[in-house]
Amino acid sequence: MTSLARSLVTASGRNLPVLALGFRPFYLAAAGFAVLAVPAWLLIYTGKLSAMPGFNGLGWHIHEMLFGFAPAVIAGFLLTAVRNWTGRPTPTGPSLGALVLLWAAGRVLVVTGPVAAAAVVDTAFLPALGLAVALPVWRSRNTRNFKVIGIIAVLAVLNATFHLAYLELIPAAWLPVAYRTALDTIALLITVMAGRVVPAFTANAISGVNPRRITVVEVLAVGTVVAIAVLDVTSYWWQPPSAIRVSLLVTAAVAHTVRLACWSPLRTWRNPLLLMLPLAYAWLPVHFALRALAALGLSPPAPATHALTIGAMAGLMVAMMMRSARGHTGRDLRAGPAEISVFALLQLAALVRVPTAAFAPAWTPHAALGSGLLWTIGFAVMFIAYWPALTRPRVDGRPG
Predict the structure, then answer these.
(1) d(CA 296, CA 293)
(2) DSSP class of residue 361?
(3) How far is the C-alpha of 174 from the C-alpha of 169, rounded, in Å?
(4) CB neighbour list of residue 318: distance below 8 Å, 6 or more residues apart
(5) Which pLDDT band holds residue 207 (cuts at 50, 70, 90)?
(6) Could you give the angle at the alpha carbon of 14 between the alpha carbons of 91 and 393, nearest 5°?
(7) Which of 47, 92, 157, 184 has the highest CB neighbour count under 10 A?
(8) What sign does the dihedral 267-306-49-176 (CA atoms) show?
(9) How many CA atoms does the CB half-sphere of 307 hold within 13 Å?
(10) What does each C-alpha distance from 249 to 44, 181, 183, 261 come to in angstroms?
(11) Percent of the chain whose pLDDT exceeds 70
(12) What does the pLDDT look like over 338-368, one tens digit per residue?
């Protein structure tokens, strides 16, 4: 870390430890929001709460999971990781606090309105995050990480598209294009980041394990996700033959399954904090397989969506949140009862929600309630368990 970065982190950490590094406030914000947002959606889903201004109930639920919860986790991770990747400072102290407040203001305004103000404030967050991440990457000429900035930029455009469609400033048909492509973008982010961290963490943690990287598998894993995203974007103008879409989805499912097998996931079973990563990633090929079934008319779309959002996205995010929070607060990289409980509850939430909707649709309302309860308890446990670590100085006395 540069001397400037060290001095900034040290100063902000002395004044308010929760603003010492990006992972601290954003991980807490993401967990706290997850505890509130899903019960609110369940109340809307069961007709006990009216929809939010400018959004119908389902629209609010989709938007807040893709453009509220997920960006908070992404922000916490990147604002911390980029500092390590580049040796350059990222926002801390008041500037970090302002970024958190911008995110929080978006969440509040989406609920309370006015809808135009909500759109302006909410769409400002991802560009602000992108700038905060891009500056140190650019100054360090760390070209390897430009792709992450590109993914943030794509999410920012899709969020703006979502709002514009709801405000009827562009055709409403852009709304499903925006959220489907946002799901693809999340899948691409998972593909890129997991491909970087899972094999590396496995090789570093387990003696004698050498995860393989097969070029053709890597190209197919990344390329099919990009191709699926392109098809979803262009679906506004052109619907491809079903055979093309199904072929891409099946290829993606196979490629990601083979990719996961190459990482020797079974060798991680003695290390629960590490095992969480391949277990969550395993939902990604399930997502593509279920999308293929949906394209063939053999399954509704919702199971594929929840395999990605609950199983892969939330599973990987909580695993990385807990791992990085423990590491960056000076704690051992091991899973205790709290970490195992959080991850297990989220995986149970996915297991309750996904197969039921796919194969026993009559039970979907009960599965949605059960899954939402498991999700809420899981994130509540995480919020409570990690509050002390994220709001106090590092246990080893180091800055951060």
Answers:
(1) 5
(2) G
(3) 10
(4) 276, 342, 343, 346, 378, 379, 382
(5) confident
(6) 90
(7) 92
(8) positive
(9) 25
(10) 32, 14, 14, 18
(11) 95
(12) 999 999 999 999 999 999 988 888 899 999 9
- Interior CA angle at 126 toward 55 and 349, to 5°? 60
CA distance linking residue 79 with residue 348, whole number of Å:
30
Query: What are the pLDDT digits (tens) for 237-254?
Result: 988 899 999 999 999 999
Q: Which residue ranges make up each domain of the chain?
A: 1-172, 180-394
Residue 171 neighbours by CB under 8 Å, 6+ apart: 165
| Tokens, residue 148 | 């992450």
Those residues with Cβ within 8 angstroms of residue 395's Cβ, 6 or more apart along the chain or in another chain: 329, 330, 331
Q: Which two tokens stand for residue 137?
A: 């990457």
Q: CA triplet 105, 139, 129: central angle to 5 degrees?
A: 10
Give the separation between CA 399 and CA 11, rounded to whole angstroms: 9
Contacts of 187 (CB under 8 A, 6+ apart): 225, 228, 284, 287, 308, 312
CB 116 within 8 A of CB 169: no
In tens, the pLDDT along 184-197 reads 999 999 999 999 99
**In the numeric block, which tokens belong to residue 89?**
């400072």
Tell me whether residue 48 is exposed, middle or buried, using C-beta atoms within 10 angstroms of its C-beta: 0 to 12, 13 to 18, 19 or more.
Answer: exposed
Band (8; pLDDT cuts 50, 70, 90): very low
Find all residues with CB under 8 Å of 85, minimum gap 6, and list them: 137, 140, 142, 145
Q: Which two tokens stand for residue 314?
A: 């939330």
pTM for the full predicted model: 0.91
User: Which structure tokens are listed for 124?
Assistant: 């400002």
Q: What is the dihedral of CA 212, 218, 221, 223, to 10 degrees?
A: 180
Measured CA angle at 59 (ends 57, 61), to 5 deg: 70
